[in-house]
Amino acid sequence: MCSLGITHDTTVIVYGRDTEGQANEKWPGRRAGQIAANRAALIMRYAGVDDVRVLDGGYDEWARAGNALEPDVREPTPVSSFGVQIPLRPELIVDIDEAKQILADREHAALVSVRTWNEHIGNVSGYNYIGPAGRIAGDVWGNCGSDAYH
Asked: Fewer CB within 10 A of the terminal residue: the chain, N end or C end?
């Protein structure tokens, strides 16, 4: 992040492109740029950036609204120090063993699947290049959309 000029106290707004697509494409999700933006936001929070936000609607909505676009590539000004030890928030990402430990207390923890209903119930894996279908035992369905774009 230092090479991008980002420190722990930089306000960062991330965005992606191609938020609209079809789940039946050969490679579903390949154009789901907002998913990548949300992943980047999580990693930045994990690292220690205090204020990370995701642009609602991403590039597509920005352009549709008539906001300024430019063809020039801007070079960031690197910084020498991020300002805090990375990762500052290691608790945001857990490995399987830690997840099992947390989930042992079902009264105060939940494992939530954010995949489609058909993925959740094991009808499909969600990707034409991934064979096994199913879910992690004990999870609940979070109903976060019907395909990679919702």
From this structure: C
> CB–CB of 16/36 below 8 Å?
yes
Closest by CA to 19, choosing from 53, 84, 63, is 63
pLDDT confidence of residue 148: 55
38 and 81 in a single domain? The answer is: yes
H/E element, 33: helix 33-47
List C-alpha distances in Å: 112 to 64, 97, 120.
33, 17, 10
Residues 32, 146: contact at Cβ < 8 Å? no
Contact in structure between 2 and 82 (CB atoms under 8 Å): yes
Q: Are residues 32 and 84 in the same domain?
A: yes
How far apart CA 128 and CA 108 sit, in angstroms, is 35
The pLDDT of residue 115: 84
CATH classification at residue 110:
3.40.250.10
Same-domain pairing of 104 and 62: no
* Domain span holding position 133: 94-150
Q: Give the mean model confidence (pLDDT) for residues 123-130.
A: 79
Same domain, 74 and 123: no
